[in-house]
Design a protein that fits this description.
Helices cover 36% and strands 15% of the residues. The chain has ten helices and ten strands. Strands 3-2-1-4-5-6-9 form a seven-stranded parallel beta sheet, sandwiched between helices. The relative contact order is 0.13.
Length: 312
């Protein structure tokens, strides 16, 4: 039985990834920051084949913890980086866990002979830190593919900047290690939405769906989305999990970075669909998904189907 380690395997996206690997008869090791807080991962225990599931406490900034977690794993899925919009100290809340955590991880896997494959869960911010707004180099409706130049700005949200830097760290590592025995692949989802597998309330994706459904603006950033009717590229959480599983179990994808995206709608239409109403405008495809469809065999479901599954 192959063993996979999933950093962040109990979160919104991570829970679906955990389910995907358990359903395919993997032994699954999932990290949690505080193992005494069972509310964070209890829902995983109800999954099929949960007897093959192991929960481990992990601090991504602690190299000893990382070394212990990856030991014996054939595959590592690196997710679980903090996704938050309200930030008091960007360095300690975002840059340290996202960027330094990635650097520590790369150092540890190089010393772990059992690991054959790593999949990094990056972000659309690794391509465009202005998301959901277009990159400054592109007009509003122009499509974005993996062949486009990445864009970042010091004016972008610290979370987006941190994800951009972390992705660049992985790129630089691959380029400086041409003879790696480990295959490294990245996936970059746009705004991930859909139904949660848990009752946890700390998922920004779930909170965003709740806010948009009820048109609540707790801060100026969210208010600006409504005021400008910003267009959102959206992808279903189950499709993201399936893409990550395929990326992890398909050989020959070293150094690839896949955009994971379905359709793009304005916030007003996202609000309508979350309330089970029809959108006024037709869907657009801004962030392209052709490479993921081709290499990973993923068919991305329509956004209307995704938003109809949201229950709160």
């Amino acid at each position: 039985m192959k063993k996979v380690g999933i950093i962040g395997g109990s979160g919104f996206i991570g829970s679906y990834i955990t389910k995907e690997f358990l359903d395919h008869d993997f032994e699954v090791k999932v990290s949690t920051v505080d193992i005494s807080n069972k509310n964070k991962y209890q829902h995983l225990m109800n999954m099929r084949h949960s007897d093959n599931l192991h929960i481990c406490e992990l601090d991504s900034l602690n190299k000893a913890d990382l070394k212990k977690f990856v030991a014996g794993c054939d595959i590592i899925i690196h997710g679980g980086t903090p996704f938050q919009l309200n930030v008091n100290d960007p360095q300690t809340e975002l840059y340290d866990p996202i960027v330094t955590g990635t650097e520590n991880f790369l150092e540890i896997i190089e010393e772990t002979p059992s690991v054959e494959k790593v999949v990094f869960i990056a972000s659309v911010a690794a391509w465009n830190t202005n998301f959901p707004l277009p990159a400054d180099t592109k007009p509003d409706a122009e499509s974005f593919t993996e062949k486009d130049m990445r864009f970042t700005s010091p004016e972008s949200h610290p979370y987006c900047q941190a994800k951009f830097i972390a992705n660049k760290t992985v790129e630089n590592y691959i380029q400086s290690h041409p003879n790696l025995d480990i295959e490294i692949t990245s996936v970059s989802p746009v705004m991930v939405m859909g139904k949660s597998l848990s009752y946890r309330e700390d998922s920004i994706s779930i909170k965003m769906q709740y806010l948009i459904k009820n048109k609540i603006a707790p801060n100026q950033f969210i208010k600006g989305l409504y005021d400008n009717d910003v267009a959102f590229a959206i992808v279903d959480v189950e499709d993201v999990a399936r893409a990550i599983f395929k990326a992890a179990t398909t050989k020959g994808l070293h150094a690839k970075d896949y955009l994971l995206s379905s359709e793009t709608y304005k916030v007003s239409d996202v609000h309508a669909m979350l309330n089970h109403k029809k959108p006024k405008e037709k869907a657009r495809i801004i962030y392209q998904n052709k490479l993921a469809e081709k290499d990973l065999g993923i068919h991305f479901r329509p956004v209307e189907e995704t938003l109809n599954s949201y229950e709160n």
